[in-house]
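Contributing new records

If you add data, match the layout below exactly. Sequence lines come first and carry their own label; structure lines follow with theirs. Keep one chain per record. Anything else will be rejected by the validation script.
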Amino acid sequence: MKKKLDTLTRKDQHITPVPRKKRRWLTITLVVVLTIGGILYSLADRYLIRHVQVVVADGSSTASSTSTTAFGTTTSTTTSTDVHATSDDWNYTSDDLKVQIQKVHTGSGSDQITYYVADVQAKDASSLRSALADNSFGTNITEDTSEIAAANNAIFAVNGDYYGFRDDGVIIRNGVLYRDSPTRDALALFDDGTIKTYNENDISSSELLAEGVTNTLSFGPILVQDGEITSDFSRVKIDNNFGNRSIQDANPRTAIGMIAPNHYVFVVVDGRQDDSRGMTLAELAQTMKDLGATEAYNLDGGGSSTMYFRGRVVNNPLGRNQERGVSDILYLTEGK
């Protein structure tokens, strides 16, 4: 009887071993699942998950932490600062600021281009500012250009350099240094109303701030420098985000240029649509030079390219009147 019970106990405790081949496939499957999961999380962390590094105070663009090192009928209107101005759908004029926007069509058929030119004259540089999506600096923090503009009482705005899509460059916004990783050719806006193109590796952020830089943009390339087009742009490459592909083809574009101190020109080009193919970088550079820009710089383009004026989006983003979220804008308001 005892022998029989011992035999039953041993049978009950016996576990059929998993075949070696099956164990190998289970291990391989687990490794593949973990690898894919890790890759997906890494991509989400890099391109989707919000990472807030600094929160900007009071809806303005002054940092809250110690990161300071880091043509229709004319109507009369009054701004939030009680500045009396005249304006319509394409123009704004006050004692301190003048904005004139023109819609331009060139070419025909498949070669047609539609773009918008904003000629801006300000009394002083304080009218030209930058703003961050959700009043926060970091990565993957986005809002539509029009949302950021409205939140900052902007009269006029364009998308910025989409600094939040990368983790390098020298990023100074409204006199605050947020990022200091010199990488590429950039643009600096100064408190005397001038803008200058430069290479981030040639001058330090501390030197820029000491010279009166209010904002830097890190995208590119430089289009016009010292009054001359910088190159033929045939070898210009985009950042290594998705294959380091060429950006020479015709695309929607956004650019900023300076005609004289406190006299700026902004161009936003529609593209990837039936009535506008977009511009190549060479065409954009020539356009900026023809408009009188002595310095001009290419900002983020594609679906980001947006021009905002007095509560409305002027151009046709994405060919569907649909904005794409961006991390930052350049905008105009009455100076303080």
